[in-house]
């Protein structure tokens, strides 16, 4: 594999800085544009408005381009990129900790996507939008963000083992 433009040691130092700067830029634009992935689908389905949906598509394209650029800069940090091309579209993400079958990951992704969509409709936006509204001073969004953090820890500590065990017991 090619060495890339910078060493892996330097990449380890630069990644947190680049992540922080990128997060600030993304947060700024998300706040200025009112970006919301769930709101984009909602507006398109209900009103045929595509402004927020175009932002969602731009986010996906930007992420793919950014990963490609980072892969060129330091390929050692992105050994399995692009995993959709190298491993197949329905393959598990490399390094997934549960070591389940492809079908199990698809089922879990669909369940998680439906759950996030339903919850996002109830709370009025996707998690990114909730973070932006928290930064704008919304207490309702702050409680959502706190609940999301606590829920993630509880899921990992308690529920994740049960879900993996259940998937393996049914042969997935």
TrEMBL record:
The chain crosses the membrane at residues 12-31, 52-73, 103-123, 143-167. This is YeeE/YedE family protein. Keywords: Membrane, Transmembrane, Transmembrane helix. The keyword Membrane applies. InterPro entries: Sulf_transp_TsuA/YedE. It holds the Pfam family Sulf_transp. It comes from the Archaea. It comes from Methanospirillum hungatei. The keyword Transmembrane helix applies.
């Amino acid at each position: 594999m090619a060495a890339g433009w910078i060493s892996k040691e330097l990449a380890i130092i630069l990644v947190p800085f680049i992540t922080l700067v990128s997060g600030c830029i993304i947060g700024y634009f998300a706040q200025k544009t009112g970006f919301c992935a769930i709101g984009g689908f909602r507006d398109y389905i209900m009103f045929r408005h595509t402004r927020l949906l175009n932002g969602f598509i731009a986010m996906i394209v930007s992420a793919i381009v950014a990963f490609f650029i980072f892969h060129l800069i330091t390929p050692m940090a992105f050994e399995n990129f692009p995993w959709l091309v190298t491993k197949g579209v329905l393959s598990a993400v490399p390094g997934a900790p549960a070591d389940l079958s492809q079908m199990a990951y698809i089922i879990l992704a669909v369940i998680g996507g439906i759950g996030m969509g339903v919850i996002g409709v109830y709370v009025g936006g996707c998690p990114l939008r909730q973070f932006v509204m928290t930064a704008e001073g919304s207490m309702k969004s702050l409680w959502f963000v706190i609940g999301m953090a606590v829920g993630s820890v509880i899921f990992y500590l308690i529920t994740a083992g049960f879900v993996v065990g259940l998937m393996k017991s049914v042969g997935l």
